[in-house]
Amino acid sequence: MAGGGGGMEVPQRVKRGSKARKRKKKSRIGFRLDMTPLVDVAFLLLTFFMYTTSLITPQIMKMSVPKSPEQVDVNMNNLLTLQIGPNGKVFTNMAQDDPVEIKMTELKAKAVELNMMRKNALITSFKASPDAPYGTVIKVLDILNQAEGEIIQKLRQEDPNIKRSRKFAFVKMTKEEEDKLRGM
Fold first, then answer.
1. 158 found inside a domain
2. pLDDT digits (tens, 9 = 90+) for 105-134
3. 144 contacts 111 by C-beta, under 8 angstroms
């Protein structure tokens, strides 16, 4: 029961004939604070904010996957191949050249440079070994996505009306390619 309704102390009996009877003791009003409604409101607010707040926004990479494999004619001069070996090393090559190891720190600059040289015509082929570390694959894809913003900015500086067409393909790595990368 909330409020200051009655005394919480037990009244003392006064003996007859004593001097204490002449003076009346001041009675204090008892006070009791019920915390239940306060706790209820606090938990309601807590659950409301938990449901309405998004802590981490999901990062989604948009991909369009063909329904059936297609044969596409590709100009080999515009083909950049990125390969991730079973040991987690990243290799790159243009056209039919031999793969060369590239550091993660150099990958973004290389992607921007090759895209600018080919003027929006570069096709990136991505091959990852089934034994490649998953974290390395994600890092390479993140670096390529970061490079995309810089590529678009540089292309628009040259021609403000240009529309960026990104060409990117995931290709299954052959056993020969995987064995070749193991030896490097």
1. yes
2. 898 888 888 888 877 778 888 888 888 888
3. yes
- Taking only the tens place, the pLDDT of each residue in 162-179 is 777 777 788 888 888 888
CATH code of the domain in which 108 resides: 3.30.420.270
Q: Strand 123-128 relative to strand 79-84: parallel, antiparallel, unpaired?
A: parallel
Domain span at residue 125?
Answer: 76-182
- Asked, for residue 70, whether it belongs to a domain, the answer is no
Number of domains in the chain: 1
Helix axes 104-118, 134-158, angle to 10 degrees: 40
**Which residues, 6+ apart, have CB-to-CB distance to 143 below 8 Å?**
104, 107, 108, 111
User: Do residues 87 and 128 touch, judged by C-beta distance below 8 A?
Assistant: no
Q: How far is CA 57 from CA 44, 53, 60, 86, 149, in A?
A: 24, 10, 9, 32, 20
